[in-house]
Structure formats: structure tokens, C-alpha cells
Amino acid sequence: MAGQHRSGEPGRPKTGDMGRRRFLGYLIAAPTLAVGVKLGEAGFDPEPAVAEAGLPSVLPEVQEVYDLSDLLLDSTRPTANLITVVVNEDGTVSFAMPRSENGQGVTTMAAMLIAEEMDIPVEDVKVEPADARPELLFNQQTQGSNTAITMYTPIRVAAALARGRLLEAAAIKLGDEATNLRTRAGRVISKAGSSIPFAELAAEAASTETREALTQLKPREEYTVIGTEQRRDDIVAAVTGQKTYTTDIDFPEALPTMIARPPTIKGTVESVNNLDQVKNMPGVSDVVTISTDASPRTGPSPSGVAVRARTFGHCIEAIRALDITWGPGSVDGESDESILRQIRDAQAPFNAPSPTPLDQAAGEVPLVTEPLGNVGPTEAIEEEFVFYWRSNAAMEPNVAVADVREDSAEVWTPTQVPIWTQQQVAEELGLPVGKVTVHVMRGGGGFGRRLFNEAPLEAVRVSKQTGKPVRLMWHRADECRAGRAHPMCTSRIRATYSKSLGKVVSFEQRHTGVSTDYTEVFGEMLTSNAARLPFSNELSVSQSVFYLTVNVPYDFGGIVLGYNEIFAFDKFATGSVRNLNNADVRPAQELMVDRLAAKLGKDRLEFRLAHLEEGRAKRVLEKVRDAGEWGRELPKGVAQGVAVHEEYKGVMAVLAEVDARPRTANRQIRGATTGPRVTRVTMAVDVGLPINPLGLRAQLEGGIMTGISHVFTGSLHLRDGNFQEASWDDYRYTRHWNAPPEVNIIVIPPEGERIGGAGEFAVGASTAAVASAYAAASKTMPTTFPIGHEKGLPFTVKSFEPPVPPSPKDGLRAYPAPSAAKGAFNPAR
Amino acid sequence: MPKHTFKVNGRQVTVDIEDDTRLLWVLRDVLGITGPKYGCGINVCKACTSHINGKAFNPCSVPVSKIGPDDEITTIEGLPATVGKDLHPMQEAWIDRDVPQCGYCQPGQIMAAVDKVREVKHKGGTITDEDIDEIRNMCACGTYFRIREAIKQGAEGM
């Protein structure tokens, strides 16, 4: 029965309760019951309670940061860096979560963990993203799919402490022993049957002093909430239009603000030639020249002209009217072709099966090498795959509301890195960090885009210059052309195999690309500054991330992985797109696995099964083989593809079916990029303990849609120093007409308490499986992705000057509207 | 400044604003009706999809001067009232299927779905995968599969 298993006396766990770990937390002096735990060190016994997976090992020693940073002095107070759970007078429980909620469902997950531990209904737990809290150090950032992994234990410890304290308060009221009491549905219940709601205990359970306390957690086998399907905490608000995003906040003085941006990447403003005319346009309040740089105080070169006006419509009209003389950008004249040449010049040679010693400076590190022995005669296959630029834009553009005063500033933005946002804003404004408040808003999609601070920095620059609050939003065209892109890259693979042994002898992959900006990687300024040092971004971060996230799940003898990159981290604006390297590395691998299977005369799926190293991986592959009916009869031009993937402590297999028959690929939907259709996806996933299978499935489905985009159509074309796409009609992410009509996701039932990440997990595997299916259906070997990229521009390019397109006027006649797409386009043709 | 009068979600409103201001900004920035979202401003992403006199349209691409005093605009906020309930059947299906992730595009998705089902029903048919394939509303989280299921479910209640 729920509740009877634990000590009801925080601070005095039963000594006889062997094998149960105790956890340390704090009772906090407050008007109602408040408890806290330290993030990252919630465990009490020597075995670490919180897996710190997801954080690369180059994480600096925390002690170094304490010593270096005056601004973090506060964090030396023992209770400063607590996450706190508060029981309110109405019996509800509040938790300010140091994570961003951009649709991943992490607030819902947190509510479930608290509800589980406290025995209250999930809907009585209110979780919102916390404001920036610099004392949390590295513990307030949302990336690398690490939220479930890092928050699982600390949140439960806080909730368990709160429950224990409620039991104590109830014991006094009932004249009973706390150990005789249990909790259910938000009430404390005695053996005699009397009960008290938490609401009546919230004030009495409050501590008058802040002090340490110990608690134990509910055993796994007694879970009734964790592992069940829970709908999103904001579901009703989301479907009724009541959910408040940054630009929706009620702050009438914060007028809409938009920025005219240069026609080439990282271009500059030389002069504004009609400033007075534009200032006098209807509705316009201010026009100011600002820096749009992603770093604070980077010098005097202005790179945008901001318009603050009554509505965003007035901003757009004013931006279109501005006459600006633009200076050069950072990549003027560069194109896909010129970048590809430079990447190829930098590609490292293959050298398996006898890898040379480490050559750190060249950025080539063999990841795994195993003695090969004498295998007799071998044959080799070799291929180069090219992956073009992909945008990480979300549906909600970059946004920030800012109110900069003389000695303080307040910012609202859906940042994934609030501490870094606060620090960068403070540096930009020359204010102490404590004078900057950063409110973390629920956002309209993250995918890596909100790991950087362009929007809040621009907003505070405009607010400071005008002396007025601003509601800044990027135009969709800015999202494509000034926003961050997953860098263009190549992945070269050489595999050798022995026909006589029927085995793969070596597998070498050399990945080379434009540098990925990892200055955000720890969501904190000191480490970010370290990443800016020469070679530091690539050698300390890019490569670490590569080697920590990339692997070959198959036993292929000698495996060598190498990664190197070109350009400084900020030549282009780059970042991750719902995944780091695996969206490219894995499809390249799996296509080669298909070829190896063919060379060795094996079935593609059975070949994988025979070479998988891990039992869990074999199991998920067998699941999709059976549930997805591998090898079933399909018409000519329709085929299956498969991939297996391990990442974020989980493992999955994906079986996709692609219909590439002409009548499907050439189907006509007005203004749509149709092409081959993914008709069915079967996925089996083992994430250990799925906290909320419903939310997990949503994340995985989303990853499938991104994978489909990566294979067929979703890319940016670089020409003459800028990207040609400028909206959702030319940047062709998966749409309803591309989405698979059948998706079946099998979640392996929970085993133990191993927690895995989900946000990015499905992207690499889905991209790989869809690419594999397309290759089989079309009987081709696709080597450039998306496959439509090199087929020219099937759309009318929108203007660069002015930098935003005109707002249409024919919306009453045109539904659905025309698009820039030149008729139906089949990327495979 | 010109005055513009029309009905939004059953309420008569009058705004003083330039003729060519697109209706989306009148709704969002002047009237504070923030359910319709900005996603592109050029009628391709459909995040602002709302209804005019019961038909879907995109207010980002309609100057306010083209809205007459008798025109009735319905945004996601006013959708439940069109069926006299707290929630429209399509919203109930969206909740049942836990469709949203970030949620930003979902008001537009729901308004487009209601319009598509009405159109199909008007022609005497039932909603098919091919009908859903024609919906243009963009979603970057990738909720398309659950939307597909929810539309079929919501259509049954309409």
C-alpha cells in the first residue's frame, strides 16, 4: 500500500532499513512547507545518485569556477543552489524547474515525479520554468537530451522530504506516530481511518529554520504514476489559444520590434540613408542601428537596423522602406560548391587498418582500434556522403521582451541557457549579474536554436538605446538567413570485409565539416569564454561531443572514427538541429551497412542482428522485424529500410517503408514538395524506465518527421554569401503531405531505474532508416542529403534587399495560399 | 486614422489603424487576441489560421480594410462558442490524443482541421488521409501523425 514503506521521520531514517539509500535535502524556513535539494549532488551515499550523463568529460572542476568567479560567490552559501518544492496553502505543490520547456514535456515529467513521491494527483502539481539562477552553475541548461537523466533523482528527493514533513505535522495533529500514517491522494491517513488534507498541513509543516534533513525514496516497485501515460500539463491552454508565449505577454509598453538584417551572412550597416523618412512612417516609434552579434560588446560594427512600432505589421512596412548601405559579411561570395571544395581539402585520409598515433592538432583521433589479426584477403568499399545546411528554426521565431532601466534590466525569453543569457545581458549592459532578471518563458520549439542569445541581446540593445521596453521578434526570413544552421559536412566511410570469413574486418569513418559553434555548451559564461580560445572550440568541445555521442553499434572489427572541421566557430552561425552529429554520421553508416550486407550476400536486417554487440539492441531490432513485417511482399518501387541506434543511454531500431513509385513521387498537391512518401514507420525503443510513455512517443514521432526532412527536402542553399531560403514554402521541412500515415512506436516496458533521454534520440535513426528504405525502393545509392538539394532551386528566391518579403493582401481570395514553390516538385527526380 | 469595425468572437470591435495593417497584427498587437500565431507573415505556414464567416483564412495576409462591419472573425479563442460548449469536438480530440508538443502551431492546426472537415462534410464525404494531406499548416515539432488521428476523431463529433 502506498506510503507505508518509508520512514516518516526525516532526519532519522530507520537504521534497520538496509539497502535503502538515504538522500540529503533541506527544510527551508518559509511561510508554508518548502524543501530543497542540491542539483547534481542529491545522493547521500558514496554511489552517485544522479547520473551526470550528457555532460562531456571536459566539464571543468566546479572548484575552479568557484575560485575564478566573483559573481558566483553566492553559490558558496550551503542552501543557495537548491531546487525547491513548495506545498501551498491550498494543498497544491509548486516547483520552479531549472529547465526550459519548448515542447519536450519536461514540466509534465517533473509534475509526475513529484506526484509519485508525494501521493498527490498530477494535476495538483504546478511546474514552471525557473528564472535564471546563476548559483546553479551548470545545472540550468536544457540540451543534450539530459533533463530526464539529471532531474529524475533530485526532484523525487525534494518531494519525499516534503511528504515526510507533512507526515510529521499530521502526527502531531492526530496524536499519532508518523510511522503509523500513510499518504494517499493529497491526504495523510491514519490507521484508524481519520485523514487530513495536505492543504491543512502546509503551514504547520513549515520549518522555522533552514536545516538539513534526510529522506528515502519510494521503491521502484511501488510506482503508480511514473511509467503511466500523462497528457501535457499545458494541453488545455495550448488547444484553446490561452498558452502564453513570449510575444503574448501582457506588457503594453513593450512595443513590437523587428530588425532589418544584412543581405549577406554577418554583413554590416555602413549607413542608413533615409532614417528620418522611416522614423516618420505611421506607427513607428523608434529606428536605431544596433549590433546583432551573438556576443555581448563585440565592438562598434553595427549589423542591423531595429524598428520599434505600434504593431509588427508597421515594423515590416518600415523595414521594407529602409534604404541601407550594407558592408561586407563574413562569407561573401561563398556557395555550397566553394564550401564543399574547402571541406574536401581538409578531409583526413583513410588509414585503417593501421591507424597512425594520435594527431591532436589535426583533429584526428581514432576512437576504437582493435587488433585485426590475420584475416586473409579482403575487399573494400568506400563512399563519400555530403550533408548540406539545415535550419534549426522552430515555429516560434527568436523572441525576447526586454525592459532595460538605468541600473537594472528584465528580460523574458524562452532560452535553453538562462544563466548564460543573464550573464551575457549583464555584460552587454555593464550591469552586475544580480541586476538582470531573466524570466524563462515556455517556448514554441527549441531544437538547439534557443541555446544562443541573439534575441535577448538584440532586445536589450534596442531597449537601452531607445530607453523603452521592447517586444522583439525575428521575421521568418531572418530565421532562415540570419538564424543558425547545422553545418554542412561530409562523412567518408571505408569498410573492408572478408568474403571467405563472411565478416567485416574494418570500418573507418572520417567526418569533416564547417565548425559547429559550441560556445553554449555548458550554458555558462566562463566555460563559454574558454571555448572561444583559438582551437578550443574544435579541440576541446566539438571533438569531445563527437566522440561522446557517435559510435558504431556493430561488431565490425577495427573501428576508426575521425572528426575535423574548417573555419572559426563564428564564421557561419551554426548549431545543432535537434541532434548533433548523428543525423549525418548514422545515415552514412547504415547505408554502408546495407552495402556490406549485399557484398556478403546477407539479408540487411539479419546481417545487422548478427553483428550487433548489445543484447538490448538485438531485442529492439527483433521487435521491429516482427511488428514491422520485415521482408513482406511490397510492390516494385516500395521498399523497407532499417537502422539501429544507441544514444542518450537508450537504444532503438527503426523500420521504415518508402514508396518511390512515380505515381506517388510525382503526385500533385498545389505548391507542395511531394516526392517519395514514407508510408509506414515502426520503431522500437528501450530507454530503460520511460517516465511518461505518451510524451516519449511524441518526442520520437517528432524525430521521425525531422529525419524525413533530412532525407528528402529540408535544407538551406548557400549562394553568394547567404542562404536562399526565407520561409516555410522554400525551406521544405516535412509537411502533412510528407508525413507517414502509419506510425507504430513500441516502448519496451520499464526495466530498473535507468533513465534515458528522448529529445534528439529518434533523428539519426529515422534519417538512417528512411534513407535505407529510399535506397532500396529507388535502387540507387543516395550520397547527398537531402536528396533534392542538388536539383536546383525549385522556388522563387525572395528578395535580400529589402530583407523581408511583402505582406500579401489577397488572403481572402487565396486559401490555401500560393507558395514560392514552382509547382509540385519531386526531389528524387 | 481610419476606424474599422467588425465582429471578433461574437464581440463588436472598433479599431483606429491604417487601412493596410494586416488583420493578424490588429488581432494580436491591438486587440490582444493572441491565439492566432505569427509563423511567416506571408500565408504559407498557416499558424494564424482563423475563420471569417465560418471559412478558414489567414489574417496575416488580409488588410484590415477588407474586413467589413458584418464580417465575423473567429479565432481559436472563439471556436468553442460556435458549438455552444467549453470545447469544440476538434479541441477535445486534440486533448484526447495529446497532440501538442510546443503548441505554437496548434491553434492554427485546429482551425484548419475544422475547416477541412466542414468542407468534406459539406460535399457529403468523410475525412480521408488524402484530405489531410492537403492541409498546409506547418509544425516543426513534427506532431503530424497525432494531428492525423485527432482530425479523424474530431470529425466524428462534428
Question: Which SSEs are present, and which pair or pack?
Answer:
The complex is a heterodimer of chains A (829) and B (158).
Chain A: E1 22-27, E2 34-38, H1 62-68, E3 82-87, E4 93-97, H2 106-118, E5 125-129, H3 147-174, E6 182-184, E7 187-189, E8 195-197, E9 211-216, H4 235-240, E10 255-260, E11 268-272, H5 275-279, E12 284-290, E13 304-309, H6 312-321, E14 324-327, H7 336-346, E15 379-387, E16 390-391, E17 399-404, E18 409-413, H8 418-429, E19 436-440, H9 454-466, E20 470-473, H10 476-481, E21 485-486, E22 489-498, E23 503-514, H11 525-531, H12 536-549, E24 558-566, H13 582-599, H14 604-611, H15 615-627, E25 638-647, E26 650-659, H16 662-665, E27 677-686, H17 693-712, E28 718-719, E29 722-723, E30 742-747, H18 761-778, E31 784-785
Parallel strand pairs in A: 4-5, 10-20, 15-31, 18-19, 23-24, 27-30
Antiparallel strand pairs in A: 1-2, 1-9, 2-3, 3-4, 6-7, 7-8, 10-13, 11-14, 12-13, 15-22, 16-21, 17-18, 17-20, 22-23, 25-26, 26-27, 28-29
Helix pairs in contact in A: 2-3, 8-9, 13-18, 17-18
Chain B: E1 3-8, E2 11-16, H1 23-30, E3 50-52, E4 55-57, E5 72-74, H2 89-96, H3 106-122, H4 129-133, H5 144-156
Parallel strand pairs in B: 1-5
Antiparallel strand pairs in B: 1-2, 3-4, 3-5
Question: How does this structure look, described?
Answer:
The complex is a heterodimer of chains A (829) and B (158). Chain A is an alpha+beta fold and 829 residues long. Chain A folds into 3 domains: 22-240, Aldehyde oxidase/xanthine dehydrogenase, molybdopterin binding domain (Aldehyde Oxidoreductase, domain 4, 2-Layer Sandwich); 246-331 and 398-473, Aldehyde Oxidoreductase, domain 4 (2-Layer Sandwich); 336-389 and 485-791, Aldehyde oxidase/xanthine dehydrogenase, molybdopterin binding domain (Aldehyde Oxidoreductase, domain 4). Chain A is 26% helix and 21% strand. The relative contact order of chain A is 0.11. Chain B has 2 domains: 3-76, Ubiquitin-like (UB roll) (Roll); 81-156, [2Fe-2S]-binding domain (DNA polymerase, domain 1), CATH 1.10.150.120. The termini of chain B are far apart. Classes of the chains: A alpha+beta (829), B alpha+beta (158). At the A-B interface, α4, α6 and α17 of A face α1, β4, α2, α3 and α4 of B.
